[in-house]
Every structure is written in C-alpha cells, then in structure tokens.
Amino acid sequence: MRCLALLPLLFAAPAHAALTVCNQTDATASVAIGYSEQDTWVSEGWWVMAAGDCKIVVGGDLPKRYYYWRATSDRYDWEDEDYYFCTTPTEFTIEGDTDCEARGHERHKFNEIDLGDLTDFTLNLTAAPSRQAIPRVSGPAPGTFGEPYSVSGLLSHCQVNDASMECEIHADGFRYLASSAGQTPLPLLEDMDSLGVNAPVTIEGDLIGYDDITAIVTIRDWSRRPADPYARLRAGLQGQWQSIDDDAFSTLIHGATLEDRYAGVPGATAIFDVGDTCEDALGAGPVLRVTYLDMTDQEPLCWVVIEVTQDYMEMHAVGAMEPFRMLRK
User: Could you tell me if 104 and 147 lie in one domain?
Assistant: First the structure.
C-alpha cells in the first residue's frame, strides 16, 4: 500500500555541480530518473544506494529546469506524482515515455524536480513508515470459502473485468485466479497489482475450486519474494510479436501468458515459465516451458531462447527443424 511520506528536497552546495541523491534512511534504496533530451523523454536507473550513501545521477551543471525521479526500497515507500516514464526491474536506459509495455518495459509514476535557475541540486530520501507497519486489507479467516492454501510464484498480471478486478498468479505449473467478484477484497488486489507484471509473490487464502491446471481461489494476504533472476528476460518478452515467416501469425505476451493470433483473431492461449534448461534441450538455455491451456494433458513444450532484443525475438522449439523468428509489432 502506498504511503505519503514527508520528503524534503534540500539544497546543498557540493564541490562540483550535479544532481545528487542521498539516501538518509536506514535501508537500501534504488533510484531512477527521467529527463528530456533533444525532444525525447529518457529514463535511467537504477542507482542502488546503501543507507547513508549519496550518488551523483547527473554530473556537471544541470542545463534543464525539470528532472524526474522515482525511488523504491524493500522497507520504505514514497508517494509518486503523475509523471509517467518507462522502467525495467534491472538496469536500464530507455528513450521514449510511451508504449512502455508494448516495448517490453514497465510504466511507473515519477516525481518532478523544478530547479528554477539552479545548476546543482541534492535530493534527500528520508524515512517513511515501514510497509509492515501499514495496515493492509485482508480477506476472511482461513477456511471460510474452502481449503486453506499458501503458494509462492509469480504475479503474471491483473486485469479489470467490468466492475471487478482479477489477478492471475502462476506457481508450479498452475494458474491461481482471484477476483474481487469472488470474495477477495478489491483494495488487496489493487495493492498487489501495483507491483507490476511478473512480480515474485507468496499468496495465501482459500481454494474455492479447480479445473485441470486452473485454480479459483481467494487471497487473504500476500507478500513479496526476492527478485526473479529472469526478470530482464521476462520484461523483454512483453508485447505483441509478428512472425517474420508468416505475416498473418502473431503472438501477444502479457505477464506469464501468451496468446497466439492468426489474421488478428485470438487463438490458443498458454502459460509459460522460464528456466535454465529442460531435459531435451541438451543443456541449452535459457528456455521457456510452455503449456497451452488446451494441451494440459501433455508435457510442457520447451522453447530455447536464442535471442531477444528490443525489436527481435528468436526461439527454437525442441524437436522442431527451424527456429521461429518474430519482430515486435
């Protein structure tokens, strides 16, 4: 849950002009910045700062009046303003502030710094209340709607359906679907949705029912888990991809799901996980382990990742003669 912290922006007089960020909390913080560069919006990050550390994020005299920043911490949180930039979970420099998800990035709010006539500035991050100290909406007591459960996996994505929100979590080859129309409090899902797609989480609640690999559940509470080692690859896969070899075929990847389309018509849907390799890949990797929802009685398909860039994706399905090559649409 977001909290509003008093965050003073203090002026300092360093030996050399710069935009400097100082972490005045007792926990590690990560900072990203945004600015305009020759009529193009640019975002950069992350500068990771230990407690009490300061880092220069823009060196030299500051030629621009406006800069933008976003800070995150496992222990503290800061309220953000309505200035949006593209980010990724790992180190990044991104040109453009639109179509973030379609380009394989995330989209988050930043805060504005108005320098006026200043050519140097120091931004001080001060402590905000611990997340653990913030009351969070929780669901009914265990066993209210079914057998209690607890699983750790990835928050694939959340989506709004009419007047309700549904979140999809993947764990151990299963899909866990929780909806605000199905006994999970909407504020809890909205809070979890703020983590972004493919966030590692642990969820607990009640199992309402299941069919094959899909479980309908309530979520009583959730917590964040350590970072996913494949976060950069997962972020790079996001978006719509057009086949180079068949103009009518495309694939939409959102979170940890993919949907094949032919001539614009939605077709088969699959869930996937990322791993180092699979049994038939002979040590090659990383790989996607793909399960189509209409083929759950079969072993997951193994796709060896050959290359994923900003605009190009190439994979080789184990057992196939030729790789499939796609361009970002």
Answer: no
* Nearest C-alpha neighbor of 173 from the set 273, 270, 255: 273
Which H or E run includes 187? helix 186-193
Structurally, how many domains does the chain consist of?
Answer: 3
249-280, pLDDT tens digit by residue?
Answer: 999 999 999 999 999 898 999 999 999 999 88
Sign, CA dihedral 46-189-199-167, equals negative
Distance CA 258, CA 271 (A): 6
Which of 50, 109, 55, 51 is CA-nearest to residue 78? 109
Q: What pairing do the DSSP bridges indicate for beta strands 265-275 and 287-292?
A: antiparallel
Phi, psi of 182 (to 5 degrees): -125, 45
Are 197 and 301 contained in the same domain?
A: no
> Confidence class of residue 16 from pLDDT cuts 50, 70 and 90?
low
In a domain, 5, yes or no: no
pLDDT one-digit tens code per residue, 41-67? 999 999 998 888 888 999 888 888 899
State whether 123 and 161 are in the same domain: no
| Residue 10 lies inside a defined structural domain of this protein | no
Read off the amino acid at residue 22: C
